[in-house]
Each structure stands twice: as structure tokens, then as C-alpha cells.
Amino acid sequence: MKYLRQLKIAVLYPENGAGSALDRNNRIAVFLFAILPGLSPNFNSFILLGSMVWGLYCLATGSLALNLSKSDRLVAIGMSIYPLVMIASIFVNPPYSEELDWIFRLLPFFSVWLLLPRMRQSPDGRLVPLFILGAGIGMIITFLFSLLQIMFLMERAEAGTSNAALLGVIGILFGGIALLNVQSPKSVEQRIAILGYAAGLGCVLLSGTRSAWLVIPVHIVIFLWYFSKHSFHLSLRSLAITGSLLFAGIIALGSGQILHRIEALQENMASLERSDGEVTSLSARFALYKGAISAISKDPLTGYGPQNRMASVLAELPDSLRPQLTYSHVHNGFLTAGIDAGIFGIAALSLMLATPLIGAWRKEAGPGRDLAIALALLLVSSYVITGSFGIMFNQKALDPIFAYLVALICVDRGSTGFAPVVRN
């Protein structure tokens, strides 16, 4: 209870001085943004949009200056190229359909221009640890929600996302971010870090998102790199024992879902060998990939525009398959970008995925740079691996999360050391 009171003060009552009100608003927004993805992703969109509108107002009235570094501008331009290419593809490829809706969906990718000047009104090193702590708390709550869903006989947990695959992506990303707080000298924050990571893995397993399972070993390599460079205030023996017990518990809780998803994959593969025309999750993906590659090869420069995405893919497939493939994307982010805007779309997407790494790598050497690189690697690996088999962008939750994290990765100097959220 004492820690909760201290946390409330740390979030709601920042230091006095110029810009303290904006600093307080930054802290509240960052903390809520970290907690909410698995519970109600729509609120992440609202927080991002509100921050953008307020940032635009402050810039227009002169209360904030755009004052971005060369590295910041490079990241912001890299982020902006993707939506600009997609907007161009909308108008290059008639017939037009819901073009304003598509443009509105792309607005999060311009947000770095407006978020960074606003975030920099908070002291260095205060927002990122708050986000990491919020990610752990959010994952713990989300896991409990997911567990209740499984107990009430839902086939796959969704928590508050309404999409099991989306929960898998959020679980692997935010659980990984939460574990970075093991370096905090506060024992409460260390426990939240370990429990948050375990809860994130639990969400991944209960959601049955197989592509997110593939991210786990990659994240382990990232953790080994990061923690080998920085000491943390927890004995290796204590960490090993606690981690082993939690991992065993999560595997036990998720064993039914794991076996179910493995059996489903085996059945899908057997169905492919039978060639009896049955459309399964696996055969649908192969068909979508084949149709997408065929369509891209016919128009590799401009693509077809996102409004014509699935029509162009389905046109390459047999008539008997089309009614059974009722998807809005081709379950591969790079192929989806190629359908939307050709090779320019794939190049713009690849550049945008590189922007977190560019922003982190270009910082001055120091603990803040290492933390930014770790965050960037966790973010990019989560999106690339899961997005190669499912959803990546053009999604109401994942777009704001990516954009917001890019801004957070850029916000601190490389020399900024990590500090706990509660310092007294």
C-alpha cells in the first residue's frame, strides 16, 4: 500500500517548476498507454490522438517549439514516408473507396513530430521507466482477464482486444518491456517486472498465437545482451528460482491451449496433403500469399491501393476459394504493403520498421542508449516476426503502439541513466 501511495505521487504530482502541468499530463498519458493495450486498445488510439491534438495546439500557439534534433527529424521523416506512400497509392489507384477513412488510419505515423516536443517537457529519464512499470502492471491485469476467459470456456483468450492474435502480439511485446524493470533497485518494481513478463507470456499462450511463440527465443537473446551490459539488483539464484517456478506455472496453465494449437496445426498440414479442397487457417494463408505474390508481380510499382487490396488478391485465386477468404489483409505485413503500394510500399514499410533502431543507435553512448536499443529490438522483432504470419499494421491498436514507442525511444539522451519510478 505504501508503494501504491508513492506511485500515485510519482504519476500525479511531479516536481514544481515551469512546464510541471504538461509534465504531469505526460506522465499520466504514458502510464495509461502502457497499461491499457491488452484491456482496451481503443483507449490507446484516443490517448495518441489527444496527445497529437494538444501537441499541435501548443506548437501553433508558440507554447512549445518544434526543436527536434537531426536524429529526431530523421526518425520522424522515416515514419512519415510510409503513410505518404500509402496515401499516394490511394489516389493513384481508382476506384476510390473510403479514402478519408484510410487516411485517418494513417495519422498515427505522423505523431512523432508532435509527441517528441511534448514529451521533452518532462525531465530526462522519467517517462521511459514509468512506461516500463505500466507495461508490467498492465500485463498482470490482462493475464488475469485472459485466464477468466479461458475458465469460462472461450477457445482462445482475447482479454479486452476482441482479437486473440492481437492479444498475442501485445503480450509478447509488453511482457518483454516489463522485464526490463528487473534493473530497478526497488524490490516492488523488480517483482512487477518478473510477474509482468510471466503474465505477458501467459497471455501469449492463452491466446494461442503461434507466431508470437516464435518471438520468445529472440527476446531471450535481447535480454541476455542487455543484462550482460548492465547489473541489476536481484540475485541470479533468486531470479532463476522465481523464473523457473513462474514458467512452470504458466506452461501448466496454458498446456491445454498449447496442445490444442499444435494439434490444429497438424490437422491443417494433414489437410494440405489430402488436397480435398478444405480451407483451413494454414491453406488460407498459402492461398493469400500466392494471390498476393501474383498480384504484385503484375503491378510492382504502384500496387493497387489499400482500398482495392483484397479484390486484387482474390482476383488471382480460383472462384471456388474466394467466398471462403473473408479477410482484410493477406496475413503478411510485407506482402500487404506490396499489394497496397508496390515495391515502394515494401520499401517504405521496411524503413519505418528501421526507425526505432535508427533513433536508438544514433544516441550518444551511455545507459540510455542501451535501454533505447533494447526497447527498439523488442519492438521491431515483435512486429516483424508476428507480422510475417499475421497482422502488422493498418490496425487500430498496433499502429498507435508502434508510433508511441518510437517517440519514447527517442525522448531521452543516451547518457541518461535508468532510475526507478518511485525514488524515495
TrEMBL record:
Transmembrane segments annotated in the record for this chain: 46-67, 74-96, 102-118, 130-152, 164-182, 194-227, 239-259, 334-359, 371-394, 401-422
Instruction: Give the PANTHER family listed for this entry.
Output: LIPOPOLYSACCHARIDE BIOSYNTHESIS PROTEIN PA4999-RELATED, TEICHURONIC ACID BIOSYNTHESIS PROTEIN TUAE
| Record-linked Pfam families | Wzy_C
Domain O-antigen ligase-related, residue spans: 198-349
Q: Gene Ontology cellular component?
A: membrane
Annotated membrane topology? Multi-pass membrane protein
- On whether Ligase is a keyword of this UniProt record, the answer is yes
Q: Reply yes or no: does the keyword Protease apply.
A: no
Indicate where this protein resides in the cell.
Membrane
UniProt keyword list: Ligase, Membrane, Plasmid, Transmembrane, Transmembrane helix
**Which molecular function terms from Gene Ontology are attached?**
ligase activity
- Its name, as the record gives it, is O-antigen ligase domain-containing protein
